[in-house]
Amino acid sequence: MQLLDGKYVSEQVKVQIAEEASQFLAESGRKPHLVAILVGNDGGSETYVASKMKNCEKVGFKSSLYRYDNSVTEAELLEKVREINADADVDGLIVQLPLPKHIDPEKVTEAIDPKKDVDGFHPINLGRMMRNLPCYIPATPYGILLMLQAYNIDTTGMHCVVVGRSNIVGGPMSVLMARNANPGNCTVTLTHSKTKDLKEQVLQGDIIIAAIGKKNFITADMVKTGAIVIDVGINRETSTETKSGFKLYGDVDFENVAPKSSFITPVPGGVGLMTIVGLLKNTLASARKEIY
């Protein structure tokens, strides 16, 4: 079993991003600029946004954070998005999810200029991805592709089983792993909560990508010996054992699955760190006008 070490790989990629950002600054006289909007004070969202801002600083990007409390109206939020869309100094805009119940996340996502949609959630970017056109690949799937590349894993001809069908991870991942590229060229099975005989389906996987949002959902009896296991889950539970007061668990029962796998990502220290790298690479691509 070899660990797919997100900490190591993300640090390597960030060194490269920092060099390219420095070159961009020298050529253009400005830094790539990422803007985040955070509504409310969800613990997970606070942590993610703080990490994104810190990583921007680390690679030499400019970052801005706009915070709103839960009482902000949908109209006010949409107005802010339009204002940022029109700001030529901004390369990327992310609105951290989840949003309060009175705000429609689809409306907000669609309001973001596709040229600044560095999370890769806008229907135009997802549509371009479906057609294998230049686009911002959603940050988590992009991070997973970068991880597979870093370990020189040739996925050609493999059977990839994706567990979870979200628009953020499962859906895009199933498209990316099937496309004519490497990583890619897999036969893909997309499974979800309504799949019959889920265990039998997952057992077929040479690659298993778990993105279902349930702690330790993928157990050892669902994984064939030698499988590559990518755990996208980040499930927070309160804990007295940690300084932060909570502990993170993946969607995979790591302790029992790891001995059976050829490669596996840990939680924390795996896909989460690669997601941030995907976001940074998209922001740099936007600044350089590589996609649009």
Automatic annotation (TrEMBL):
The Gene Ontology terms for molecular function here are: methenyltetrahydrofolate cyclohydrolase activity; methylenetetrahydrofolate dehydrogenase (NADP+) activity
Please state every residue range assigned to the domain named Tetrahydrofolate dehydrogenase/cyclohydrolase NAD(P)-binding: 138-289
Q: In which pathway does it act?
A: One-carbon metabolism; tetrahydrofolate interconversion
Pfam families documented for this protein? THF_DHG_CYH (PF00763), THF_DHG_CYH_C (PF02882)
What residue stretches are annotated with the Tetrahydrofolate dehydrogenase/cyclohydrolase catalytic domain?
Answer: 4-119
* Function in brief: Catalyzes the oxidation of 5,10-methylenetetrahydrofolate to 5,10-methenyltetrahydrofolate and then the hydrolysis of 5,10-methenyltetrahydrofolate to 10-formyltetrahydrofolate.
* Name under which the protein is recorded: Bifunctional protein FolD
Q: Which organism is it from?
A: Pedobacter xixiisoli
Its taxonomic path starts at: Bacteria, Pseudomonadati, Bacteroidota, Sphingobacteriia, Sphingobacteriales
